[in-house]
Amino acid sequence: MKDSTKHWGGKRKGSGRKPSELGKTVVMRVPESRVEEIKQLIHSANNFSDDCVNSQQEALEAVIDKWETLITPDRQKQPRWENAARLLNELKTVLKSQ
Predict the structure, then answer these.
(1) pTM of the shown model
(2) N or C: which end of the chain has fewer CB within 10 A?
(3) pLDDT tens per residue across span 14-26
(4) What is the domain extent for residue 71?
(5) In a domain, 87, yes or no
(6) Residue 32 carries which DSSP code?
(7) Contact, 81 vs 75, CB < 8 A?
């Protein structure tokens, strides 16, 4: 007698389409005449978030540069400046790791 268990079809762990790198997606009906416009909108939104991150990083680097000039070796010996110097070094480490 033949084994009647099928080895295809049905729900299985790990099967099916893998998620998009953009995250969860949905299907939308868009007028054909507006497809390129929608694509450009999505592309510019992605670039905008990258630009925001870059400008924030540049702003942080400018603040770090300013504080580096304020925290001289003489001041680092004072307790309040010692904490500022420690924070400044931590910020530089975080920015370098990105």
Answers:
(1) 0.43
(2) N
(3) 877 787 777 788 8
(4) 32-97
(5) yes
(6) G
(7) yes
Closest CA to 57 of 21, 97, 87: 97
What is the CB neighbour count within 10 angstroms for residue 41? 11
Distance of alpha carbon 31 from alpha carbon 21, whole angstroms: 25
pLDDT in tens, 7-51: 676 777 887 778 777 778 888 898 999 899 988 888 887 776 666
- How far CA 93 is from CA of 13, 28, 86, 98, in Å, comes to 41, 44, 11, 9
Number of domains in the chain: 1
- The amino acid present at 61, given as its one-letter code, is E
Q: How far is CA 83 from the centre of its chain?
A: 29
Residue 78: predicted pLDDT: 85
Residue 75 in any domain: the answer is yes
CB 95 within 8 A of CB 61: yes
